[in-house]
Automatic annotation (TrEMBL), chain A:
Chief localisation class: membrane
InterPro entries given in the database record: ComplexI_Subunit1, NADH_UbQ_OxRdtase_su1/FPO, NADH_UbQ_OxRdtase_su1_CS
Residues annotated as transmembrane: 6-26, 73-95, 101-123, 135-156, 168-191, 242-265, 271-290, 302-320
PROSITE patterns: COMPLEX1_ND1_2 (PS00668)
Lineage: Archaea, Methanobacteriati, Methanobacteriota, Thermococci, Thermococcales
Membrane recorded as keyword: yes
Compartments in which it is found: Membrane
Alphabetized Pfam families for the sequence: NADHdh
One GO cellular component, as annotated: plasma membrane
Keyword Membrane: yes
Originating organism: Thermococcus paralvinellae
Entry membrane topology: Multi-pass membrane protein
Keyword terms: Membrane, Transmembrane, Transmembrane helix
The protein's name in its UniProt record: Membrane bound hydrogenase, MbhM subunit
UniProtKB/TrEMBL annotation, chain B:
Cofactor(s) the protein needs: Ni(2+); Fe cation
MF terms (GO), sorted A to Z: ferredoxin hydrogenase activity; NAD binding; nickel cation binding; oxidoreductase activity, acting on NAD(P)H; quinone binding
Transmembrane segments: none
Protein name listed in UniProt: Membrane bound hydrogenase, NiFe-hydrogenase large subunit MbhL
Lineage: Archaea, Methanobacteriati, Methanobacteriota, Thermococci, Thermococcales
PROSITE patterns: NI_HGENASE_L_1
Annotated organism of origin: Thermococcus paralvinellae
Keyword annotations from UniProtKB, A to Z: Iron, Magnesium, Metal-binding, Nickel, Oxidoreductase
Residues binding Ni(2+): 66, 69, 369
UniProt signal peptide: none
Residues of the NADH-quinone oxidoreductase subunit D domain: 120-375
Pfam families cross-referenced by the UniProt entry: Complex1_49kDa, NiFeSe_Hases
Record-listed Fe cation binding positions: 69, 372
Length: 321, 409
């Protein structure tokens, strides 16, 4: 491991937290504007985390204490690790070569799992119902998510995200497999709000039904860690979608040749812009435009509709390869 | 309920129900298998307070029974008092009263539509509908001077007249809400997510509705043609052929679910617009108070002995008041029945067998109002700090004048 890798391994999570919270702020602001409200300032999520860190951390009397306290740490750690696998624009992922898309899939699952286990451990009926719902939802959306990854494996003969990022997917597809990749993109966009527990799939945290569900008993530092991991996961998920489906660099799109620091700055900003567009399209617009589904309705959507789209996409990719 | 049971408590502290009532739902997975509704947390003794005051003071106390139906209770009160005292309101007042009452129905139904949208996580719909609701609240403030407790009714008439400038504002409002209801039909009633969340949820059959004695839109959504304005018309309603809005007249059948009640409420807004339009177009000339002098009115009340029952169709259902006068300047007996008291009966059968996700919709479905059930509470802070009458009055006058200026522009 080179000093450069160590630097990235420290800098990426810090940058990830900053960007995750900023994107959360932008999301809240845009959503507010879409519903004729002013909305909070973009820096609001930072104040939220700061306030939560200062608040008392209450552990319910009938909770499994060690499990209850460990799960936020696990969720936060997995989201931090997730960041190390994502190539940041033209920068390579710090943990490149130590894992691939399958690891990313598991890291994403691990956070949801940590929240569900934390919910069960809290001993609250609201949290338990929320955790049950989260498990059902995970079983529903994991299949289309896995189908997308298998589609990419078929195309690239590799699970490495860096390999995928370095060679844009649209350059290596035939018209048939191109259509397949497009369908996979659509499936992943639908999975995104469910993966990030956002409307219309925030069923596990449904505020009006089960009072924030899994998070009902969490407070203070523990809640801050879940809040941070949620913010980072939002950024990471959008970044993965950009890497998979919109990997075109600024120089490639606009046909300009950049060098030195300018190259890194421009490409970095370009990457952030693409992530923001995906984030707004897959999270902000969707969560503002829909009501919450019931759990069986959400399951049906993923098992029937999204799965069909993803499998059709996979079949087209397979035919076109 | 045994301590070991796996149950979820809803209310008094729950995002779906923030009022002083408790619903304990025992659940198996996502299904509710046992329900216990506990009510009566707040006893406020408003009727007793009313019996210690004169009739005019009691009238304005009746506005405080409910935060939303702040015209419905005074309306029922004045109808009852006029019956008991043998006073008849002038024709102009009889036309002004329904205008205010129907404006309140529009704001109450829009409020409900926002709440039900929020309960199913559809906050964009909530904000959109509540944005539309502002117009009717502003208009109520323009007509009455107040946004919540209008204080416009009086035994034997109304306290404020409708001016020419108000009529233009009313006409504008009617046009605005016709457009809004058309959009609501398009956006809410045709929305697949809204349909998916409300069709078959909180389904109340006609038989069960009759058995539970539910009232208002809850009964009408189940297909019961009952509406005080149709069954026992009063004031200008007697001149208008008000027909209860029931789903079978709109779509041919009544299922009595949350979707049907939404439909009933949207169509009732249109009905209210029709009533307001009729009243505005046919507003008679003349005075607005039968006995303009309050001292003379109180003297008449002191001289008269009598009792009566009166009812008004509030947005949530029928409000019934009973009054008895026997030689004092206030009622010696005052009894109030509010619609939520009947409608809450439907919670237990509707929740039984429902899914956890449907609980907020079932709870909000009847538009529950605990302050209607438990009347008013008197609070005194330990510091003794209260907002003075002068301050509140000055602020209210300032805002009314501002709205008047805006309307004139």
């Amino acid at each position: 491991m080179t000093p450069e890798t160590v630097f990235y391994a420290v800098a990426f999570p810090i940058l990830g937290i900053f960007l995750g919270l900023t994107y959360k702020g932008i999301d809240r602001r845009i959503s507010a504007r879409m519903t004729s409200r002013i909305g909070p300032p973009i820096r609001q999520p930072f104040w939220d985390v700061g306030k939560l860190l200062l608040k008392e951390t209450v552990v319910p009397e009938n909770a499994v204490k060690w499990l209850f306290n460990a799960m936020p740490v696990l969720a936060f750690a997995s989201s931090m690790t997730l960041l190390l696998y994502i190539p940041f624009g033209v920068l390579r992922a710090p943990l490149e070569g130590y894992g691939d898309l399958i690891v990313i899939l598991y890291l994403l699952t691990l956070q949801s799992l940590a929240m569900a286990v934390g919910g069960f451990a809290s001993g609250s009926p609201f949290s338990s119902v929320g955790a049950q719902r989260e498990m059902v939802l995970m079983m529903s959306y994991e299949m289309p998510l896995a189908t997308v990854i298998v589609g990419f494996a078929l195309l690239y003969k590799s699970f490495s995200l860096t390999t995928i990022a370095s060679n844009p997917v649209w350059n290596m597809v035939s018209p048939v497999s191109g259509l397949g990749v497009l369908l996979l993109f659509v499936a992943l966009l639908v999975v995104t709000p469910a993966e990030l527990a956002k409307l219309p799939f925030d069923i596990a945290e449904a505020e009006t039904e089960i009072a924030e569900g899994m998070l009902a008993e969490y407070s203070g530092r523990n809640l801050a860690l879940f809040y941070l991991s949620d913010a980072v996961r939002g950024f990471a998920m959008a970044a993965i979608e950009v890497v998979l489906f919109i990997p075109f660099t600024f120089s490639y799109v606009f046909g300009v040749s950049l060098s030195g620091a300018t190259f890194y700055v421009i490409e970095g900003l370009w990457f952030l812009f693409k992530v923001l567009v995906i984030y707004i399209a897959a999270v902000t617009v969707v969560r503002t435009s829909f009501g919450r589904f019931r759990i069986e309705q959400a399951s049906r959507i993923f098992w029937v509709h999204v799965n069909l789209i993803a499998l059709l996409g996979l079949a087209l990719v397979w035919l076109g390869v | 309920m045994p301590k070991s049971a796996y149950y979820i408590p809803i209310g008094p502290i729950h995002p779906a129900l923030k009022e002083p009532i408790r619903v304990e739902a025992e659940i198996e997975g996502e299904k509710v298998v046992k329900v216990d509704v506990k009510r009566g947390f707040a006893h406020r003794g408003i009727e007793y307070m009313g019996m210690k005051r004169n009739a005019i003071q009691t009238l304005y106390l009746s506005e405080r029974i409910c935060g939303i139906c702040s015209i419905s209770h005074p309306y029922a009160f004045v109808i009852t008092a006029e019956k008991a005292l043998g006073i008849e309101a002038p024709p102009r007042a009889q036309y002004i009263r329904p205008i205010i009452a129907e404006l309140e129905r529009i704001h109450s139904h829009l409020l409900w539509l926002g709440v039900i949208a929020h309960e199913m996580g559809f906050d964009s719909l909530l904000f959109w509908i509540w944005k539309g609701r502002e117009k009717v609240l502003d208009l109520l403030e323009l007509l009455t001077g107040n946004r919540i407790n209008y204080s416009v009714f009086m035994i034997g008439g109304v306290r404020r007249d409708i001016k020419e400038s108000h009529i233009k504002a009313l006409k504008d409002m009617i046009t605005y809400y016709w457009e809004l209801t058309e959009k609501m039909k398009e956006i809410i009633l045709s929305d697949p997510v809204y349909k998916a969340r409300t069709r078959g949820v909180a389904q109340l059959s006609k038989e069960l509705a009759l058995k539970l004695n539910v009232v208002g839109p809850t009964a009408r959504a189940a297909g019961l043609r009952m509406d005080i304005r149709q069954d026992m018309p009063y004031d200008a309603y007697a001149d208008i052929d008000v027909r209860a809005v029931v789903p079978q007249d709109i779509v041919g059948e009544a299922r009595g679910d949350a979707y049907d009640i939404t439909m009933v409420r949207i169509y009732e807004i249109e009905q209210s617009l029709d009533i307001i339009e009729y009243c505005v177009d046919n507003l008679p000339e003349g005075k607005i108070l039968a006995i303009p002098n309050y001292v003379a009115l109180l003297a008449k009340i002191r001289r008269t002995k009598g009792e009566a029952i009166g009812a008004h169709e509030a947005p949530r259902g029928e409000v019934v008041h009973y009054l008895k006068f026997d030689g004092r300047d206030g009622p010696s007996v005052w009894k109030v029945i509010a619609p939520s008291y009947n409608n809450i009966n439907s919670w237990a059968p509707l929740l039984l067998g429902a899914e956890v996700a449907d609980i907020p919709i079932v709870v909000a479905y009847i538009d529950p109002c605990m302050c209607c059930n438990d009347r008013v509470a008197l609070l005194k802070t330990p510091e003794g700090r209260v907002l003075g009458y002068e301050y509140i009055h000055r602020k209210a006058v300032e805002k009314t004048r501002r709205i008047e200026r805006e309307v004139k522009k």
